[in-house]
Specification:
With 407 residues, this protein is mainly β. The protein is globular and about 75 Å long.
Amino acid sequence: IFLWDPSLESWIFTTPKIYQNLYAFTEGSWIYYFSCTVEHRLFYSFSLEDFIYGVTEGTPLYPGYKSSEVLLASSGLAEKSYLAFPVTLRRGEDDLLLSFKRGDAHSKDADAFWEVYQLDTPSETIIGPTAGLHIPGLILQIGEWIRFPKGDISLYIDVQDPVDGPTLRLGLREYRSIDNGLNFQENGEVGVIAGVEYGYLFQGINIGSTTYALVMTFDYFAGGRRSVDVIVSNDNGTSWTFAKNLTEEFGGIQINESSLVPYEEGFLMATRGYDNVVRLHRTDRQFDLIDETVLTNDYDFIDSLIGRPRLFERDGRYYLMGRNWTEPRSTHPMQLCLFRLDPEKLTIRSYAVLDNEEEAEVTDGYYSSPYWQERDGKTYLNVVTYKGVDGNDPDIIRLEFRWNELR
């Protein structure tokens, strides 16, 4: 018999004589099915020499293997102990750049700055800080790395003024390294691009020699509008040009944090809406909309928006990671979740709760940055994030999972 397994995304073949052995064509491998497992079906892959899972749609997976480590504890700092919004960038085979905000509160904390560390992946320890990015009297709120095609690294930071009332942004600022993250030079404000100034950069990716960045502008900036835009650079970030107003392209929806990943001849995008929903969009290479859906409306286990959504592709599969409420926000603590997507149908195939299965009172956290590590012939997903419980200042933490268990 030949069967299609939507969770494994594979045709499988077996016969009465060889069952519970099956051949999975996508894996290109014989697998063994542990028939006592139903809701979370467990298989052994002979080619991977590891266990893999088949998860019933809509049923959460709680990883069997999980390692958790505090990289930097807020309790060990005498001042500026509010640690948040970590981002990582692969620096070499065995190390990453790790940067995060260090301040006094989630926001409105004057003199909050950004520290840069080196994360040694074999020992899973941080070295540093190697740099401290600071503007006296102002707030360096949220940052994002971009490595340009020629190798230069930039950290783009949302700079804010600690005024009373609504948040006042002062424009996107760039710090650049030409020596692979050893030293950083302040390049000042990014400035006005095609008549528009920006204040918050969500993500940058390279396709060939072209860099695409998702950025947000605000109605009190030059340009006079509130939107998420795509800007493009063909000279390693020396100059930028305007490509698309996504808020307008997606029908005027008010969106904030967004993410994108190349898909076929275009892009797959996730957006966090001010209407407390998360959407998936599929566009062509010019960012013209092809299709979209509201995940919050489609799935009971997404009660609201997904905070700081991160899209990525691994081994030909597409994933969304972020802060999630699987139940109403008023009664259920936030969790860190990983969703496996069908990018063509814009649906969720399965999802895993990566952190806070125990439903502790996580009061701030889960902007997350993933990376992979090979060890003893196995692939591990690592997630650097931040987490504060019961109103305490958050710590910068590292979570580790066996990738074959989640993929």
